[in-house]
Amino acid sequence: MKQTILVTGGTGYIGSHTTVELQQAGYHVVSVDNFSNSNAAVLDGIEKITGIRPDFYEADCNDMPAMEHIFASHPDIVGVIHFAASKAVGESVQKPLKYYRNNILSLLNLLELMARFGTRGIVFSSSCTVYGQPDVLPVTEDAPIQEAISPYGNTKQINEEIIRDAIHAGAGYKAILLRYFNPIGAHPSAHIGELPIGVPQNLIPYLTQTAAGIRAELSVFGDDYNTPDGSCIRDYIYVVDLAKAHVAAIRRMLCAETNSDALEVFNIGTGAGVSVLELINTFEKVTGVSVPHRIVGRREGDIEQVWADPRKANEVLGWKAEETLSNTLLSAWRWQQHLSDR
């Protein structure tokens, strides 16, 4: 019998790709989303890839009665993967209260319902932003948590602390915190990908929209950082590889034979740092399409450079990032072309 996994933010960028990987790994997915940064067509894309349409609920995770109804309707939910959150660093600086309300209340509701309904575990979508600007690179899971430099990053830190405190208090479920780096790309089928509403807040969709002529030019926030070319450095991970990490985490958490701690933390990245300007140059090289861009001032909340030491995830989860940056960027461009043809 298939194990049932609740995926919040299930039609979002990472949530939709993880739903695909869960279904292909033999899990039954119950998906919830309020379409704040996605739409119902994503469900069609998932079904085209896997042949299975997830059980879907249009609901806000901050709506406790709605979430209670979902848990009561699916008493066989054994695990939760929690993606539902506002996630743009820049916007969080401008609208901090939106981020605190949305990102924290939704987790509190889930943890209360998990305890009430006997759910066995949660995989939490955390972020490398909890490390701030690390003193040592690449960054390991043992690196100190730095003071957050954006409300978005602070919500991830607070939520990790909430989960840690709940586990310490004997919550009765397990938790895995996946601190991932910068997901990019799209499913190779081009049926699902990153689909921002309005002006993109993330680099790659803005880059591909600029390449497609939808945006006039791409802004590069700063060229005076202490990096080889002056632009920020990040660890860009293929979204399908990232989705597979969530399946590996669920498998570990739910395996009765795995004598794992009640709370575990893993960095999910490639282990390679790439600058913004390097990323643009690689995109232009592999696609043959130019990306008009200009240097502007630094953006508040941005970290200078960070990339992962993923060895713990490699060794303990048995997971590893596999796709090349070139192929990942090609997948993002194919997705943009698919959107432009619709």
Automatic annotation (TrEMBL):
Pathway in which the depicted protein is active: Carbohydrate metabolism; galactose metabolism
Keywords: Carbohydrate metabolism, Isomerase, NAD
Cofactor or coenzyme needed: NAD(+)
The NAD(P)-binding domain, residue ranges: 6-327
Alphabetical list of CDD domains matching this protein: UDP_G4E_1_SDR_e
Complexes and interactors: Homodimer.
Protein's GO biological process: galactose metabolic process
Source organism: Porphyromonas loveana
Enzyme class: isomerase
Name recorded for this polypeptide: UDP-glucose 4-epimerase
Annotated Pfam families: GDP_Man_Dehyd
